Amino acid sequence: MKTLILLALAGLGAQLVDGSLGMAYGVTSSTLLLAIGTNPAAASATVHLAEIGTTLMSGVAHWKFGNVDWRVVLKIGVPGAVGAFAGATVLSNLSTAVAAPVMSLILLSLGVYLLVRFTLRGIDRRHLGKPMRKRFLGPLGLVAGFVDATGGGGWGPVGTPAILASGRMEPRKVIGSIDTSEFLVAVAASLGFLVALGSQGIDFGWVVALLIGGMVAAPIAAWLVRHVPPRLLGSLVGGMIIATNSRTLLRSDWIDAPDAVRNAVYALVYVVWAAAVVWSYLQYRKDRTQESADAVSAHAALLAEPAPADAATVPDPERQLTGGRPSAPTD
């Protein structure tokens, strides 16, 4: 029962992050399942089964708040589903000894990307409103879906930054569209795992626990996407994923590092993580101050503009010639 409660809380927290950042539900949940010893394929299958419900709820919530571009959902979601089915099949056919470090390596890479992306870079708002090309979204969806299934997460970390970097959509619509299209990816990946594995190793109680936590958080996250600073949240989540998967890799048969090396790596990770969070917060405050100053300057410039002349203030040439008196009527 304690495990189920922890999983429900993890699902709630993961969905709050995912709905606010457009990424990290699968990465966060899969990291937790691997940490408690779940088989990699079963962990990814468990997460994707839960995501069928959480992504559906999240998509509806984002749609209600006007955060979804349905053209983008279809253009990236269908290729994503194809990639996810293929990725589930590949992961299901790997041995546990190989799959665990492979999955942790993918998750670690995504964690590093999250940490660097949200610590060092803001959101580029140039080129907003330009249409997204199918030739860009199709291959992106295919790769992101494959990574998502093999890594237990990755749809958001691959898809969201790529679309944000294009600068053609508002951040809230990028997040809403990625979260909504993930429903197709979750369904396809789940079918791939069920075909390849059956129900072997999947604990449906864990699926339900993750699902309940995620569904509770989905509408809250859709609202929070307008208020939570993504820079700070991304740094926090990225560091957590790096710390957890570093531990898994250092203890794997691939590396099997001695205790002294492990402790040194853990210390380095925690120091870098703390520095990244502090830097993200300071940059967030700096950006907010700059935005406020820009808004004040723009308002002052608007007030300083001369009022346009209207008919009431334009001098009448005839009155000027007669000293301000109306001219005498003419026959």
Determine the N-to-C terminus distance: 104 Å
**Total helical elements:** 12
Percentage of residues assigned to helices: over 70%
Total number of distinct structural domains: 1
* Mean pLDDT reading: 76
Low-confidence stretches: none
Strand percentage: under 5%
Order of secondary-structure elements: HHHHHHHHHHHH
Shape category: globular
The helix/strand class is mainly alpha
What is the alpha-carbon Rg in Å? 27 Å
Query: How many distinct beta strands?
Result: 0
Question: Main β-sheet, in a few words?
Answer: none
Pfam families: TauE
Subcellular location: Cell membrane; Membrane
Protein name: Probable membrane transporter protein
Keywords: Cell membrane, Membrane, Transmembrane, Transmembrane helix
Can you describe what's shown?
This protein is mainly alpha-helical and 331 residues long. It has one domain. 77% of the residues lie in helices and 0% in strands. Helix 10 (230-250) runs antiparallel to helix 11. The chain is globular, with a radius of gyration of 27 Å. The protein starts with a helix and ends in a 10-residue tail after the last helix. The relative contact order is 0.18. The mean pLDDT is 76. Belongs to the 4-toluene sulfonate uptake permease (TSUP) (TC 2.A.102) family. It is a multi-pass membrane protein.
List keywords for this structure.
331 residues; mainly alpha; globular
Helices and strands in order:
Elements: H1 2-21, H2 25-35, H3 40-64, H4 70-92, H5 96-120, H6 134-151, H7 155-166, H8 171-197, H9 204-224, H10 230-250, H11 259-304, H12 317-321
Helix pairs in contact: 1-2, 1-9, 2-3, 2-10, 3-8, 3-9, 4-6, 4-8, 5-10, 5-11, 6-7, 7-8, 10-11
Keywords: Cell membrane, Membrane, Transmembrane, Transmembrane helix
Transmembrane segments: 97-116, 136-155, 175-197, 204-225, 264-282
Main location: membrane
